[in-house]
Amino acid sequence: MTDNDNPPLRIYAADLAEFRARHQRYCARGCREWAQAHGLDWAEFVRNGVTAEQLLATGDALAKALVDWCSGGAGVRQIPSVEDDTEERIDGQ
Asked: What are phi and psi of 88, to 5 degrees?
């Protein structure tokens, strides 16, 4: 199996919200400001997520912690559904 067989890890604003609720004390406005300060398009982050590489490229400690947390299987993944656009939690809960 090669790296091309696995799509890059995508991280969503919902992951940041869950992470901050569990580990940090950022408010929603603070998350939007954090994304803007690091050159991330908030609307894109919410809709389609960003790659782990994009977050790591910011050099920000929160970005690294978020990527590490999501890499471990935690977080929320937006999985398109034919029936609806609900989010599915895949962190084992």
From this structure: -115, 125
Domain-by-domain residue ranges, the chain? 8-74
Rounded Cα gap, residues 44 and 12, in angstroms? 9
Q: Which residue has the tokens 């937006």?
A: 78
pTM over 0.70: no
User: What are the structure tokens assigned to 92, written together?
Assistant: 């084992």
pLDDT in tens, 18-73: 887 777 666 778 888 989 999 999 999 989 999 999 999 999 988 898 898 888 86
**C-alpha 42 chain-centroid distance:** 11
Closest CA to 76 of 2, 35, 40, 85: 85
